[in-house]
Structures are given as C-alpha cells and as structure tokens.
Amino acid sequence: xxxxxxxxxxxxxxxxxxxxxxxxxxxxxxxxxxxxxxxxxxxxxxxxxxxxxxxxxxxxxxxxxxxxxxxxxxxxxxxxxxxxxxxxxxxxxxxxxxxxxxxxxxxxxxxxxxxxxxxxxxxxxxxxxxxxxxxxxxxxxxxxxxxxxxxxxxxxxxxxxxxxxxxxxxxxxxxxxxxxxxxxxxxxxxxxxxxxxxxxxxxxxxxxxxxxxxxxxxxxxxxxxxxxxxxxxxxxxxxxxxxxxxxxxxxxxxxxxxxxxxxxxxxxxxxxxxxxxxxxxxxxxxxxxxxxxxxxxxxxxxxxxxxx
Length: 308
What we know:
The protein is of the alpha/beta class. It has a domain at 2-154 and 189-216 and 266-271: Rossmann fold (3-Layer(aba) Sandwich), CATH 3.40.50.720. Helix content is 39%, strand content 19%. It is built from 9 helices and 14 strands. The strands form 4 sheets. An 8-stranded parallel β-sheet has the order 3-2-1-4-5-6-11-14, sandwiched between helices. A two-stranded parallel ribbon has the order 7-10. A two-stranded parallel ribbon has the order 8-13. Helix 5 (121-141) links the parallel strand 5 and strand 6 (145-150). Helix 2 (52-59) packs across helix 4 and helix 4 (81-101) packs parallel to helix 5. The mean pLDDT is 88.
C-alpha cells in the first residue's frame, strides 16, 4: 500500500516508517524537517500539517495515513495551550479532511494512555478532542480509523526529554541520576522497536475502527528501573531523590500520573499483545552503549562505565 507518515522524522514516527518499508509498503514521510534517519526506500515531503495545500498534495493517492505530528511534550503543551490546540487538534483535522477528499482507506492516529487520566493537561485534552473528531469523521464521512494509545516509550532516536533517555544521559555525564519524586510511580515501558512493530501490525482488518493500547507487557516502579540502570552500569552511579517542588525540577510532576492513568474512561481500547518483546534490561543496555558512543565521538566527558 501507499502510506503517508505525518511526523515521520520524529522518534516514533521514523521507526514506524522503517517498519512499514520492511513490510513492503511504499512510504512517504511528511514533516517540517528532513529526517536524519531517511532510508533510500522512503520519500520525503517537507511541509506543515497546518498548511492545507501541502497536506492535500502529500495525501493525494495514499491508501493509509498515519499522524504522529504535533506537540508531544506535556510540559511544552501546558506552557503553550494555543500552540498545542493549533498543531494537535486543528492540524489533525486538516489531515482528516484531506483524507476524506482523497478517499483514504484508513487513518491511523497516535494518541496516548493519558486520555484515560485526569493528568496530562492540554496534551491529554488535545488527544481526547482528536479522538472524538476522528469518530465524527467516521460517522459522517465513513473514514475508517485506528487509534493507538501509547504507553511510556524508550529507545534509539528519542530526544533529551524522553524519561529513560534523560536518566541514562545523566548517569553517563554526571555519575548520578536525580529523580523528582519518591520513585513509587508505576510505568509500563515499551521499547520503540516493539511499539513500531505493533503500529504496523494494526493494519490488519481486525483493527479497523478500533482503539488499541500499545504499552509494555509488565509494570515497573520507577525506583526499580533506577536500580536496574545502576546495576547495569556496575553500581557506579548515585541515585538522588528530590521533592517534586524542588526548584531544580525541569518538568511539572503534576501533569504526570503516579500509579495508573486509568481515571477518565473514554471509548474502551484493545491491548495489542505481541509474541515477543525486547527485554527492558537489554534495551537499556543497548541504549547506554549508543549514548556512550555518541559522547565519545563528541569528545564529551563520560562516566568510566563498567557495563555488565
């Protein structure tokens, strides 16, 4: 099939674009910037999802459209609500409208498990609004969809604001990880390779007009994750817990859930269960090696690693 990946230059979108190519699809990436991960089998169109003409041109002739574009950082979304509404809601609606005009067979939307929560601020509410609008397009125009609610992702190509990436970079650079909170928060971490693979598997007909949860297969307390990182690095790092209201905190803890996101209950979702997942410890080890190699190439000071 001919598939357009909006936001395909980013963390998750670029991996999904790769898995789509591997599955034999013809893939075009539509993004504000050129993908540093662009493969020769992929086409690239530079453009903004708020530009209706550019979106129309990109979608013409496509069978399936994925949308990973928009503001994904919750702290940024909280600070800039108007920008968040424009990119996440208006931008997504522009894509939906172009899908209808061009008879796209299915629209795949990147949502979040935060839609279940009373946390997440404008990021959460923008995703909730998008989900409802997608349903409206299905009811009024017959546009088939699949909505993917992602859990906590980690892995290569993540930016510096990604939770696990941030922890590992602190550990390598400072021999210390500072965590704001008590570490009792629970997450279901999933490697981006697993998330991307599942994001392609949902093209199966059984996921048409379905909500799908893509998250890790086991729950873990953040403090246990930190202990795992410490052990992988040979117990050479310090773990430091600070109050959430400490002035050094770079994010707003009030918009992140602690134990579970499941408070608000919109349309129920299926959980996609894969036959195999990348082990969390192995995934962290490989990511540590990548970050350490990156620091070495840039000539940055790093911890003297004793990686197990």
